[in-house]
Amino acid sequence: xxxxxxxxxxxxxxxxxxxxxxxxxxxxxxxxxxxxxxxxxxxxxxxxxxxxxxxxxxxxxxxxxxxxxxxxxxxxxxxxxxx
Length: 83
Fold this sequence. Notes:
Number of strands: 2
Strand content: 5-15%
Shape: extended
């Protein structure tokens, strides 16, 4: 089985084949600018601890981080904007 890094790289290559190159250039430049800023200094890393919190799930029902952790390791991902 491929590693996550390998799978992500394959997805990037696939994306680059079908997307308008100008869009890819804009997105890559914006990503590089964010990485060059200090914005990542406050980002939690793998294994970092946080407070317990509750947020709505996809159905709008609140779910607590602590309840997810009772089921095993948990990945928390926040998306900016609305899709």
